[in-house]
Amino acid sequence: SYVLTQPPSVSVAPGQTARLSCGGDNIGNRAVHWYQQRPGQAPVLVVSYNTDRPSRIPERFSGSNSGNSATLTISRVEAGDEADYYCQVWDSRTDDYVFGPGTKVSVL
Amino acid sequence: EVHLVESGGGRVQPGESLRLSCGDPEFSVSSNYMNWVRQAPGKGLEWVSSIYVGGGTYYRDSVRGRFTISRDISENTLYLQMHSLRPEDTAVYYCVGGDSSSYFEHWGQGTLVTVSA
Prior knowledge:
Chain A has strands at 9-12, 18-23, 33-37, 44-47, 61-66, 69-74, 83-91, 96-99, 103-107. Chain A is an all-beta fold. In chain A, strands 1, 3, 4, 7, 8 and 9 form a six-stranded mixed sheet that branches. A three-stranded antiparallel sheet of chain A has the order 2-6-5, with no helix packed on it. Chain A is globular. By secondary structure, chain B is mainly β.
């Protein structure tokens, strides 16, 4: 089935920008969705269809997708952004929903 | 705000069965795409099963034939019947629903299933 890759961890200082990658073969041709999971909590959808942000999600969160990599960008990082972030696609060939392994964002 | 609540988790021995339930009185399980996603302790997210608005059901390979997803429209409840449970099925099981078949919008808080001798 389709495989997604994510760096295990990213560290960023408060106020700076975090860029989280999600790699996959021609992932630019797929719809990528992103989830934030704070410690001990359920995941929350933060970006759908590569760039769409649910109304309750701050504008600091944005997404892009092209070629073999999709990116979730978190601008003006805050302590509350410390969480695991997962990308996800749907593999139409196998009717599977595929998650990436996740990236742990640490705010210094 | 959608507030899906799961129940039915617990500790069972390998080979035993368990049924999970999920619902929110204000959220229709028949008018939305409903799913189960699990997370093993300390691990990432893993899709388990989905039931579409039209009634079609889908499963990941490792649970197909052992798990059954269903919904009771009169009770507005989503179920996951799990048979022949294995230690590798140990996880928090999240009920997730939404108006898209592509992504997972509204998540419950999860229920823990532990399969151990």
